[in-house]
Design brief:
The protein has one domain. It has 3 helices and no strands. The longest helix is centred in the last third of the chain and has 30 residues.
């Protein structure tokens, strides 16, 4: 397991989520901008938290430590996407 790959995965997943949020705001200006901004803030907090965990890994951290970070990334990003989906449905009236 490569430390650089984990950092890239975190950046890619969170970056894709932020891109999706900004795309929604660009296509639908003014619709629930506050909710989407809150989701972006949560994503940035998740990014910072996970990068801090990777950067401050205990010396000799084993594979399970990094596997747990990846698991957290996937679970939390799924939650963010679920919240984005609800916000989009609510703002479009569906």
């Amino acid at each position: 397991m490569n430390l650089r790959d984990i950092k890239k995965d975190i950046e890619y997943v969170i970056g894709a989520f932020v891109d999706d949020c900004t795309l929604f705001l660009a296509i639908n200006p003014g619709k629930d901008a506050d909710k989407i901004a809150d989701l972006i803030d949560k994503a940035v907090d998740l990014f910072n938290d996970l990068r801090d965990k990777v950067s401050s890994a205990p010396k000799g951290a084993d594979k399970a430590y990094y596997t747990d970070i990846r698991k957290t990334l996937l679970e939390e990003s799924d939650k963010l996407y679920d919240e984005l989906s609800v916000a989009v449905k609510d703002s479009l009236g569906k």
